[in-house]
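COMPLEX REQUEST
Ligand: magnesium ion
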Amino acid sequence: MSQAIVAEKHPLDDLIRADRMPHIWCPGCGIGIIMRCYAQAILDSDMPIDKHIVVSGIGCSGRVAGYMKLDSYHTTHGRAIPFATGLKLANPSLTVSVFSGDGDLAAIGGNHLIHAARRNIDLTVVCINNFNFGMTGGQVGPTTPQGAFGTTAPYGCQELPFNLPGLLKACGANFVSRWTAVHVRQVRDDIQYAFSKPGFAFIEVLAPCPIGFGKSNGIDDGLEEMEMYRDRSVHIQEAKASEEEMVIDLRADHPIYVGRFVDRDRPPFKPAEALKS
Amino acid sequence: MSQAIVAEKHPLDDLIRADRMPHIWCPGCGIGIIMRCYAQAILDSDMPIDKHIVVSGIGCSGRVAGYMKLDSYHTTHGRAIPFATGLKLANPSLTVSVFSGDGDLAAIGGNHLIHAARRNIDLTVVCINNFNFGMTGGQVGPTTPQGAFGTTAPYGCQELPFNLPGLLKACGANFVSRWTAVHVRQVRDDIQYAFSKPGFAFIEVLAPCPIGFGKSNGIDDGLEEMEMYRDRSVHIQEAKASEEEMVIDLRADHPIYVGRFVDRDRPPFKPAEALKS
Amino acid sequence: MKKEIRISGFGGQGVALAALVLGKAATLYEDLEGVMTQSYGPEARGGASSADVILSDAPIAYPFVQQADVLIALSQEAYKRYRPLAKKDALVLIDQDLVQPDNSDSVKAIPATRLAEGLGRRIVTNIVMLGFWTSSSGLVKRENMEKALEDSVKAKTLSLNLKAFSTGFEYGRTRERPHE
Amino acid sequence: MKKEIRISGFGGQGVALAALVLGKAATLYEDLEGVMTQSYGPEARGGASSADVILSDAPIAYPFVQQADVLIALSQEAYKRYRPLAKKDALVLIDQDLVQPDNSDSVKAIPATRLAEGLGRRIVTNIVMLGFWTSSSGLVKRENMEKALEDSVKAKTLSLNLKAFSTGFEYGRTRERPHE
Amino acid sequence: MTRPAVLTGKHFMHGDHACAEGALAAGCRFFAGYPITPSTEIAEHLAARLPEVDGVFIQMEDELASMATILGASAAGARSMTATSGPGLSLMMENLGLGVMLELPTLVVDVMRGSPSTGLPTLPGQSDVMQARWGSHGDFAVIAYSPWSPQEMFDLTILSFNMADLYCVPAILLADEVVGHMVEKVTIPPEDKIDHIERKKPSKPADGSTYKSYLVEDPDLVPALPFAGEGYHIHLTGLTHDERGYPDMSAETHDHLVRRLFEKIQKNANDIIRVEGYELEGARIMVVSYGCTARSAHSAVLQARAKGIPAGLLRLVSIWPFPECIIRDLSKSIDHFIVAEMNLGQVRLEVERVVHRDVIGVHHAGGAMIPPEPILAAIEAVAK
Amino acid sequence: MTRPAVLTGKHFMHGDHACAEGALAAGCRFFAGYPITPSTEIAEHLAARLPEVDGVFIQMEDELASMATILGASAAGARSMTATSGPGLSLMMENLGLGVMLELPTLVVDVMRGSPSTGLPTLPGQSDVMQARWGSHGDFAVIAYSPWSPQEMFDLTILSFNMADLYCVPAILLADEVVGHMVEKVTIPPEDKIDHIERKKPSKPADGSTYKSYLVEDPDLVPALPFAGEGYHIHLTGLTHDERGYPDMSAETHDHLVRRLFEKIQKNANDIIRVEGYELEGARIMVVSYGCTARSAHSAVLQARAKGIPAGLLRLVSIWPFPECIIRDLSKSIDHFIVAEMNLGQVRLEVERVVHRDVIGVHHAGGAMIPPEPILAAIEAVAK
Amino acid sequence: MKVYDRTPLNLDRMVIPHGRVYLIPERCKGCNICIRFCPMQVLQESKGQNAKGYHYPEIVEGKEDACVHCQFCMIVCPEFAIYTDAGEGSTP
Amino acid sequence: MKVYDRTPLNLDRMVIPHGRVYLIPERCKGCNICIRFCPMQVLQESKGQNAKGYHYPEIVEGKEDACVHCQFCMIVCPEFAIYTDAGEGSTP
Ligand SMILES: Cc1ncc(C[n+]2csc(CCOP(=O)(O)OP(=O)(O)O)c2C)c(N)n1
Ligand SMILES: Cc1ncc(C[n+]2csc(CCOP(=O)(O)OP(=O)(O)O)c2C)c(N)n1
Ligand code: SF4
Ligand code: SF4
Ligand code: SF4
Ligand code: SF4
Ligand code: SF4
Ligand code: SF4
Ligand SMILES: [Mg+2]
Ligand SMILES: [Mg+2]
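STATUS: Structure written out below.
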């Protein structure tokens, strides 16, 4: 055995607030992985870094805004999308991304999510779905798979979760994909694609939360959850599955369907223009 | 010509607050038509009248609760569904219906709508869709068809509207139908069917609003809107239309697709039961 | 000088527009203070509705009509509801085809709706009435009312409105007197 | 009598459970007043964490430890962070394999983790430590601590926990003295 | 293993759990909420406990829904509650007002943290006091208690439910993170020793005539509202309404209604208000405090007394309605008032208003409980 | 036909429209809102007008979104606003607090109606005054003006924008239905005569080093926040934060931050506060009033003077920060204070607190403007 | 095919019944919906008006016996203002 | 077929490069993800630990030259703690 070369600085350190590292996320937490994909996508994008803006709500995932060395806004729980809408419409030259959790975007923030998708606001929304409210300690939420446990579902979650891609499709988003923290290249690609695609883009990324979700559900650590994703992900192009089967179910051998669900070109929201005379 | 027989009392007067008639709705407004369907459905239902409860939010449609001679709750804008959820879960022997407008249920109340559908709360929700905010004077809303005018869209509405049946289907409701105020028998039938069907039932009814919507959009009166519905409605069973075509578009000759979109039997929400020992 | 003017009728008769024109004329083109108010809301739909204007040569503190000096009534219900609230000796202008005044009440009457229909559009009844009031009251100059009208209606309906105004004005100037 | 007791370590070592058991024993089975507090929140994740108990024979107003009379340290970081905040002459109990105390500091040491591993499960290190403290301090009776333990852990882990407690207790009673 | 609703006996119990157990002991069988630190443990505890007693636990999509849902449950006759903290309380404000207007009793627990905005989620504050009184639009009155220990998290939860039902109004338990997260001894009495006040109900059965839900003839100004499904066919609306509950858009009806809602609390203030005095005998310096801060204040007062300073403590167990009369009465013999609270001055303003003179504030915006020292220092400063 | 942003000239204008025109004249180019009576005409007017001046109008799904969106627009550098009424204001409370914490200027227009709850949607009230001050959780301070005429709907909208930008805080225009819905003469000055205050901006260009967004060195306590996209890579969070904007969970940082946010307004109160005195000369009875009610109060005072009673009117043009010093100063020569307001007593409580004595209130819960008579009666009663 | 069909769904099953038309004139708001949607064109707008000024429906001259008690007028009236019952000569 | 494939997608395109592994030990939280997901099994958990007590990765004995600079370890590390560059002997 031998030491790796000890470094002081990471190649992406210029894009993150290195002075705040290590971040607060637990060992094995997937959020950092997705944040890295985002940093890489920015680096690879055509837009100048200064014009990239990130907005988060509240939650572990919501801390992403605080770790990106961009103009970054850590708002209130559920309101990242409308805050981002204000930024984008007031200055359309900005490339505005929203990074937040499943609870933030789909529980308390659900109304803004569906309406922004309907209006097709030109935002890139990355939803880190860890099947629970990590920040507050592992409560269930609208993405918790049926039967899973959480601190507010000690007898198992009885509700069916949202199938987020299906929901966003029904609302009218221009781009919708789902991946997991294992699909690091696809996540990076889709984020970068979303930057340049007009309209509302929604990228759901399933990510390990060993402390909030794993602990209640017999998943020992982040690594184990990563391996589960690797083993159970099936690309929607390779499978004939109904909308209902797209719902995530972690019991038995139900596959996790990933891929690009929607890629269309409805016109993005733009403010009305008066007829000039 | 001769006079009809002058009467003092209507056969359904025992079900409505006759002491409040005439109601505040404008001449030609469709809300009263749908309310009558509801009254009839109650009369025809198996549940005792006393166990029927109606909850509304705020809006012209939201006034329905105030005109039904039932235990009736006129709540806050957008919150009829959670209020009704509390009623139903606290006393499951009640048959709880929500009557409200498109703005109330799908704009400000959108989050509760999608979550109640996801949880499959055992409610009958009747959404009176008049394509605008009638009560506040004809503003556009999330159901206003593209290109239509409203007091907040003097240059025409640029946003695409929700296709409510598609949205509710994606969320997980057990029963979803769409009719118009002309389809009085179907509306009555579906409301009555929903009473006895466990889980979340959503019935969208397109209804004339000559004052809020008609006035801005060249529809002279309620009658004209009724005739439009009669002429343009197409049953989904008779047509092969994509989800996107189901979106209501009042321009040109786009049909209005009506019918039962979803009728399934996912288990309704019920509170967790502890394992008795 | 302080005059409380109430223009009343049912929804759709354009009482608000009439009040607005009146207020504009007085405040922008004469040097009067003026305030206009109106009833709002769903419970105000149908039934009698009114739009009120107060004109004064001093600043107006309380903006609501307390006892109208002038009542213009375009429907029976409006007359019934608002007449008792107006001053006993108020100047009361009615559409004679729509309103049957109390016997004891001395009113100035005009077949405003019929005159408007004669001009081709019933919806200018309100403006006919405004012309009638202008000549009957003499409070605001005709040309100022006409200027205000220009500011307030769509260009393509202006000539019709001016004609309606003039019809009412002339009716008042020439034929109304006897009824007093 | 008033004693401020801080049990510290890193996340996952069960310092809160240990504090809870201690508090229960003192308040429910001895007639002491007691309060337990603990640090919360994401910024408290990782790094040193602590759970504090104050015991007293009079009501306790201010519930937080100001200067600990007893410090139990299960990690070097915890020792480093909390030792300076404790009284100079505090009773300091350490896991001798995990903590290297300052030279000047007189501590009571026990290989708690090793003993726990000896019992088969490292996670009972905290309970070993609790046993050690019980014999070292004499503040709370052994049987009361054991009763509290019964109330606090899952039935199927009780015997393991009692064994861990006893191991720590015996270690303190028999072998610890010399270190003082 | 399912446990009974009332866990009679002595416990070493977490404050939030004590609140949850208090709710169960009070007969609460309905919780709707949305997690938020530092109140989440109430929800978590009830998620486990309510199913044991056939109660309903539901986690909602947000706090707006939570508040509306517990009002619906109350309309159905359930003792219902939610628990939250500042940001959530802000979101409940509109529907709190609905509860006031519909006169539906329910309980909102606010475990206060460092604020404003997201602030210090895991650390204490006491800065939602004025919000509890003024946070919803319009004039209204609620009932608010402020516990200083886990024992009171239990006791005042029960009292809050009783007062809410007695006066048909939402009650607020204004706890703070310190009290919510601390563990202390809690004694739960036997079930039959727990006070239980029933809501006033109509005196006559439904008879098909229009029941006047809001016809209030009793001097307590409280209506007798039937529960949903009892056949009275009542109408409840957030609009201004007459005695039948029908909308009535007249200024007179409005003034009459809003004043009754307000006076219903004011008139019964003596019954609702709870304060505790410590070292009042001969006191010339009065510390007013509440919640966790009152613990430090108590300690400071005892220390002052030990130094021969005639200090006393008035602990506000109830905050709203404000104990005006008590404080005004007291003020006759008091030279100096000191208000100690973990905010920049909220109850202090009320005390200033009531005693008609300047009041010394010992304030900290939050994040850490105020220790006894600054309070003692303030006492000593005026004692000089 | 598109019109310019500033409609210089005389108009007979609806109060809500005057507010909208004031916003345009102030350079506001961003409106996000949700319709609600009696503020809807502001939105409707701007829906037509903003596209004429290349501004953004967006109707949101609710008031929560509206408030968050205008803060986002402010972060991007826009003068942004929303308009609502009581129920909507209640829903904005959480994000109003965010605006305070992030120090993002914006304007919230609240056209007050009969409250609480849905109340009297189309009729006037003045009962959101305390809510503007206390409605969000935690301690905070905002700026609030209260117009008494359509002209002031125009003027105070501009002033509100300027003060918001000057002090980096949301401003609230506390209008009422009477003023919002009345039509009166409004004079719009030429564009170059309209005051315009720019937000403080960083003195140095971005240089890659961590910009300290909240390093406040100026005595006005106001930070210099860059706009989004200027390269400073700032971080703004609703969590308690240090000078870099980074979260900092220490009680010291919290107390320091919250006090600065509060004192930023208090210290500059003299610059923010606007009051008007009428008949102050020799006055022994002082009526305090604001908004539409001040019109009646003015009339009552004139009538009292005509009867030889030495009454005066202090009209609060700004309500928050409260003009404590002015009122306290005045109180030396005043025998009786009367507060006239369309609520059950809100500003009255503040005046009581400040003047250290009981104050007479002329109150009505709302639904109809208080006419001069009861105010005059109150004056006469104390004059005896 | 259109979903709505002017012919009442149950018309064919009925032994051509005879209906009597009842009206609560003060409730009517003159929307004309009953008039236009009556399959038998039994109704027309009256000249007279109610207190609010609305023209309620009346029976077309010569159609006094034309009502088939299909109840559609009752079903579509937004005002609970009109209904029918089975006239004497009809089979129930 | 599973979407994820242990073999880095671009492996075949590369002229087997040689990578050098860099680590910022104080950032590592010992999650082991880089270790398990390295296609060449270059990494293993160290015995030593950083200040927070985490076992960071080190290079397996005998695998000092095995890294193919596929960068997957960098890509999956949640902590921005590890990365590689093209070692001398590799074709860039
Ligand atoms: C109004 C409001 N309600 C509740 C909370 C408490 N809260 C903070 S984060 C969170 C949930 C976070 O879940 P998610 O968005 O999935 O993020 P994760 O932590 O799982 O990444 C909640 C409920 C809050 N901050 N504000
Ligand atoms: C919190 C809040 N925001 C806004 C309003 C104002 N408001 C009342 S009804 C309504 C819209 C009604 O639209 P819809 O639900 O479609 O009912 P309709 O009147 O069209 O039947 C609005 C915006 C309100 N009452 N409360
Ligand atoms: S709680 Fe879960 S989501 Fe939050 S940091 Fe820990 S592992 Fe990540
Ligand atoms: S505004 Fe529209 S919805 Fe409201 S009552 Fe009138 S017609 Fe009906
Ligand atoms: S019941 Fe009504 S709709 Fe049917 S035929 Fe008779 S009048 Fe016409
Ligand atoms: S449908 Fe009803 S309201 Fe309309 S005209 Fe016929 S009777 Fe009158
Ligand atoms: S780059 Fe990383 S993952 Fe790839 S071979 Fe080298 S050590 Fe393994
Ligand atoms: S992936 Fe990163 S944090 Fe995890 S073990 Fe490897 S270097 Fe450490
Ligand atoms: Mg999550
Ligand atoms: Mg509508």
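REMARKS: Helices of chain D lie at 15-29, 76-82, 112-118, 125-137, 142-152, 158-176. The longest helix of chain D spans residues 158-176.
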